[in-house]
Amino acid sequence: MRSPEPQDAAPQAPAVFVIRLEGEFDIADREPLIEAFATANSAGLVVIDLERVDYIDSTVLSCLVTLHRSTQQRGAELVLVGVNNHVHRLFEVTELHALFTIRESAKELTESRAGVRRLTIQGRSVN
Predict the structure, then answer these.
(1) Confidence of residue 109 (pLDDT cuts 50, 70, 90)
(2) What is the pLDDT confidence band of residue 41, given thresholds at 50, 70 and 90?
(3) Which residue segments constitute the domains of the chain, with CATH numbers given?
(4) What's the whole-model pTM score?
């Protein structure tokens, strides 16, 4: 009787991937955002922390909508947290607040889960 061949274990995808954005983001930041969002593509839950965001434009909204579609297509979940009043107003004006799940904080989403990965993206600073 042959014993089974050893198999290399594939790297485990994180259960939760938290991406924190800090500063101002616009069209100049499109590529770094797309790359960061693609990095999170294997997680079952993707959390975008906007608590330290001062400004986003329609380019960033488009990136978030694309991320939402990709998470939905693979049966994962996308949650936005820490959305300040200025950014929330933008979501309301564009009616995207109805598309996204928005929570106050990432703590309740991450505290009881194993395999949380975090990434911070720095935009331009407000001076």
Answers:
(1) confident
(2) confident
(3) 16-122 (3.30.750.24)
(4) 0.85
One-letter amino acid of 20: R
Q: What single letter denotes the amino acid at residue 119?
A: L
User: What are the distances in angstroms from CA 32 to CA 63, 65, 72, 86, 118?
Assistant: 11, 16, 22, 23, 15
Count other C-beta atoms under 10 Å from residue 121's C-beta. Answer: 17
What does the block give as tokens for 119? 């990434």
Written in H, E and C, the secondary structure of 1-39 is CCCCCCCCCCCCCCCEEEEEEEEEECHHHHHHHHHHHHH
Going by DSSP bridges, is the β-strand pair 101-103/16-25 parallel, antiparallel, or unpaired? unpaired
DSSP line for 45-65? EEEEEEEEEEEE-HHHHHHHH
- Output the pLDDT for position 100: 96
Predicted local distance difference test score (pLDDT) of residue 1: 42
The H or E element spanning position 123 is none
